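Message: Study each token:
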Amino acid sequence: MVAISELWLPILLAAVVVFVASSIVHMFLGYHWNDMRAVPNESAVQDALRGLKIPPGEYLLPNRTSTCAAPSTRPGSSAVRWCC
């Protein structure tokens, strides 16, 4: 019978190999690419959110196809940036 102290290195290496392999498979197969869809009429949604006087910061709308807008220059919305 083999002692567990002799198997720590193979166990650790196997765990690292499985983690790296699963990460690569997950990246290339793209299981979750369609999980986040575009908001219908995204510009109207952004305009409605700007009217809520949300504090300055970076916010995310879940649409990976739109481009990030420049910081808003509208009165009352200082440096709120809507990113994709």
